[in-house]
Amino acid sequence: MEKQLIVDGINETLSEEFELGIDKLTPDAHLFDDLGLDSLDAVDMLVHIEDKTGVKMDVEQFQKVKTLGDVYDLVAEVSSQSKLN
Amino acid sequence: MSLNNKVVIVTGGSSGLGLAISKRMAKDGYQVLINYNSNEEGAARCRDEITKAGGRASIIQFNVSDREQVEASLEKFFGENSDAQLYGLINNAGITKDTLVGLMSDDDFKDVIETNLYGSFYLMRWSVKKMLLKKEGFVINMASLSGQVGNGGQANYAASKAGVIAMTKSLANEVGRRGIRINCVAPGIIETKMTENIPFLEEMKKNIPLRRIGKPEEVASVVSFLASTEASYMTGQTLSVNGGLYFS
Fold it and tell me: Does the CB of A43 have a partner CB in chain B at under 8 Å?
C-alpha cells in the first residue's frame, strides 16, 4: 500500500470515528496532547485501522506510537512486511 | 431487539455448564458459536439440539490456551460468515487438576492457569476489540466459589478463578464507556462432570442453605440475565449462584 493511501485512509478513519478536523491531522500531532485521545481511544484507533487497512499490527510496537506520523510509519512498515510475506 | 445475527461464543460448550448455557443462549435468540477442544461429539449434539428446537448454532474447535489457534479459528469463522456479528462472549471453558499444594506439580498449576486464566484473556482480548468497533456487547466469565473463598486442594483452580474475577473488574473499568459490559458468574456446587466425584457430597449439602446442589440450568438462567438488557446497568460484578453456600 502506498504511503499516501495509508495516510489518507488513517486520516479518514480518525476524522470519522473521533470527529477530528482534517486540519488537525498532521504527522507531528501528538495523539494524546494534540488530538485529545485517551488510552482507550488508542485501542479503538488500532482496531479501526486494522479493520480499514486489513493490516494486523503488533500490540507491542503500537504501544510505542506517540504521534500521528508514528502511526503512518508503523502501518506502512507492517503493510510492506506483510506484502513481502 | 432482533438478535438474529448476534453471535455469542460459548467456550467449552460441549458439556456441563457450557452445554446448558449454549442451549439457553439459543433459546434467548442468539446465534451460538459452540467451542470445544476435544469433545466434538458433545458439541455437535448440542448444535443439533439447538437447531432442532429452531435456534441457530455452529461448532468451532480450538484449545482456549493456544492463542494462535483461538485467533486463527475465530478469524476464519467470522471471515466466512460476514453477516455474523460478534455480540457476546461466555468464557466457560475450564479444567481442574485438584491436589494438595504439597503434591501439586508445576504442570498441575501451569495447565490450570493457562486454560482458565490465559484462555479467558485470549478470548476477551480478541472479542472486545471486535465489540469496540460496534460499541456494544458483553462478556460473561465463569468464575467459581473457589475463586471467591479459596478451597483446599484447589490452589491452582482457585487462583485462576480469583484472577478471572479481578480481570473482569479491570476490563469492565476499561470498556464501560463504550457500552460493553463485563461480568462474572460464580457457581457453587453444580451437577456436572466436574463435581461428580466430590467426596462427602451428602455431608456438604447440609452446609448449603438451600440443602441441595445446583442444576446447570440454574446457572444458565443467571448468565441469560446478565447477557440481557435487563442487566444493562451492571458491569464488573460477580453474581454467586451457590444455594447460599457463600454470601458475597
Answer: yes
What ipTM did this prediction achieve? 0.75
Domain that holds residue B12: 6-238
Domains within chain A, CATH numbers bracketed = 3-84 (1.10.1200.10)
Q: Cβ B129–A40 below 8 Å, yes or no?
A: no
Candidate from B133, B174, B178 with C-beta closest to A48: B133
* Residue type at position B29: G
pTM, two decimals, is 0.91
Domain annotation covers residue B248: no
Q: What is the pLDDT of residues B104-120, one digit of tens each?
A: 999 999 999 999 999 99
Backbone φ and ψ for A25, nearest 5 degrees, come out as: -90, 75
Q: Is B118 tagged catalytic?
A: no
Flag whether residue A40 sits within 8 Å of chain B, measured between CB atoms: yes
Q: What is the phi-psi region of residue A51: left when phi exceeds 0, alpha when psi lies from -120 to 50, beta otherwise?
A: alpha
Q: Which residues contact A74 (CB under 8 A, 6 or more apart)?
A: A57, A61, A62, A65
What would the grid cell of residue B128 be? Answer: 472486545
